[in-house]
Amino acid sequence: MHRAFLSLIGLGLLLVPGTVLAQEPAPVSADSATQSASPLISQPAPQPAPPPECQTLTGLITDENYQPLTGATVQVRGINDAYSTNSEGRYIIAPKNPIPSPMRLQLSAAGYESQEILLKACQPPDVALRLVPGTRFKRDGRIKKTTSTGRIK
Asked: Looking at CB atoms within 10 Å, which of 4, 20, 36, 131 has the fewest?
């Protein structure tokens, strides 16, 4: 009977709701917080990704009236190849080696002011070239005369 009594008391203790105590976190002092954060601060910041390299560049060159310029010249600084626009004023630059970004494009056409643009991405903007003051074209498209700048006479 004594065993039965102890068994009932044991079961009763298990069934009685009680307060459960959990461990409390240790207090954090200002010194320990700076010591644990200092390794995070002393680590170098992640480096930005290198600029993309362009496999091909395509674009459009027009005149001031947005008419395509046929035969305009496009050159990437640092590359010895020159490219020209087709009858729609479009050009495609596809060198053997990728072109590093940022890059400078030199755009020119006979009778028009040259432009140099800086590209930070691989998509060049459409460009409108302006006529050199005093330039006239014959009906067949040839240049008649320009100012005495030494360019074309």
From this structure: 20
Residues 6+ apart with CB under 8 A from 77: 103, 104, 105, 106, 116
**CB burial of residue 143 (10 Å; 0-12, 13-18, 19+):** middle
Cβ neighbours of residue 117 closer than 8 Å, sequence gap 6 or more = 104, 105, 107, 124, 125, 127
Q: What is the pLDDT of residue 63?
A: 92
CATH assignment of 53-145, among 1.10.357.20, 1.20.140.10, 2.60.40.1120, 2.40.37.10: 2.60.40.1120
Asked whether the predicted pLDDT for residue 73 surpasses 90, the reply is yes
Residue tagged 């030494």 (tokens) = 150
How many CB atoms are closer than 10 A to CB 108? 17
Global confidence as pTM: 0.56
